[in-house]
Design brief:
The structure is a homodimer of 168-residue chains. The first copy, chain A, is mainly α and 168 residues long. The first copy, chain A, has helices at residues 3-20, 25-35, 43-50, 54-66, 89-113, 125-153, 158-167; strands at residues 41-42, 70-73, 82-85. A three-stranded antiparallel beta sheet of chain A has the order 1-3-2. In chain A, a hairpin with an 8-residue loop joins strand 2 (70-73) and strand 3. In chain A, helix 1 (3-20) runs antiparallel to helix 2 (25-35), helix 3 (43-50) crosses helix 4 (54-66) and helix 5 runs antiparallel to helix 6. Chain A is elongated, with a radius of gyration of 21 Å. The two termini of chain A are 28 Å apart. Chains A and B meet through helix 1, helix 5 and helix 6 of A and helix 1, helix 5 and helix 6 of B. The first copy, chain A, binds a DNA duplex (30 and 30 nucleotides) through residues 24-26, 43, 52-56, 58-59, 62, 79-81.
DNA sequence: ATATATTTTCAGTAATTATTGAAAATTCAG
DNA sequence: CTGAATTTTCAATAATTACTGAAAATATAT
């Protein structure tokens, strides 16, 4: 297989996967393109490779930068902006998990926190089902959060750091 | 706060969260509704609570059953079908992770497996960037899969089982 | 068997989300 | 400063995804 063909297939699959996980397909494709690029790419490169408009390219690059998955990269002697992606997939994964937690899970948990004090007979089946489900989710989320923090901080911690090296 | 109001807010938030993670918002709402219901609900109950059509309700209930998140439940003396949701959030989470892996990650990894043999100079920057990224993702996915299997099988294993009880 | 209740399907439509492209804003070299 | 290069914005439009409602299929009681 030719490299160009392989890249295309990778970009395509990464795009599909992104779509399934609630990420704009094009954003995932831009990310994929930068992941497999040997050198920084400009907006024009990205437009050309993915056949997308300037506006679309720009928006998705900005968003990838918000997610800390893509960085600007200066190419001397050129006024254009160039971009690179973080290529350590472990870092990519922890970054995405951390951000999705912050952006999406935390707001949900905040709402749950407001649903704990309900009027009425605490012993009715309806009441119990509700209270138990909410408490359950909160407990689960708390543990998941601890685990995520441990994983994210693993590299700053001598014990986990060495343990994680086996894992990575 | 009244129970009905709290339920509504929960259903709403769960729906938003689902949407952000690539799950049909209505499907997430049906799931939420069943999660906090004190008793099994019929299609008509779900239609009424969420103000959705019969077709929509039916489709989403079927899909939730495909995901093993919802089960039929027989109410004696009634011809209608009734539905309940798995309420142990730990089980819900492992179920979703397992199924998303199977449905979405595995196909991606299958594609990656086909992209390892590329024509051309193995030492070019482009080539190296590509090969390394692919290998990286595969390695990461392999470890993630092992971890997921461990977690899923935890309850069938005496050691993990007792360990997990602290966690749940 | 027939009537009736219930579930499923799916073509048409509505709602949402993504994309374009060109104008406006910004940046930067001379 | 000036003007060309570049980036950003956003209204219009396209593409995708979700929903409805009624007809068809299925199941159940008598």
């Amino acid at each position: 297989m030719k490299l160009a063909e392989a890249k295309l297939q990778f970009i395509q699959s990464w795009g599909v996967l992104g779509g399934q996980w609630g990420i704009n397909r094009t954003m995932a494709q831009v990310h994929a393109l930068l992941l497999v690029a040997g050198n920084p790419l400009s907006t024009d490169d990205i437009m050309a490779e993915l056949s997308i408009s300037r506006g679309n390219a720009n928006m998705n690059i900005r968003e990838l930068m918000d997610w800390k998955l893509v960085d600007k990269s200066i190419v001397s002697g050129d006024r254009k902006e160039y971009f690179t992606a973080e290529k350590d997939i472990w870092k990519v994964a922890t970054c995405i998990m951390y951000q999705r937690k912050k952006r999406e899970l935390d707001p949900m948990l905040k709402v749950l926190g407001q649903l704990t004090d309900i009027e009425g007979d605490k012993r009715s089946a309806e009441m119990k089902a509700f209270a138990e489900t909410i408490a359950n989710i909160q407990k689960f989320a708390g543990q998941a959060e601890k685990t995520l923090d441990t994983v994210i901080k693993a590299e700053e911690n001598w014990f986990w750091s060495s343990f994680m090296k086996m894992f990575k």
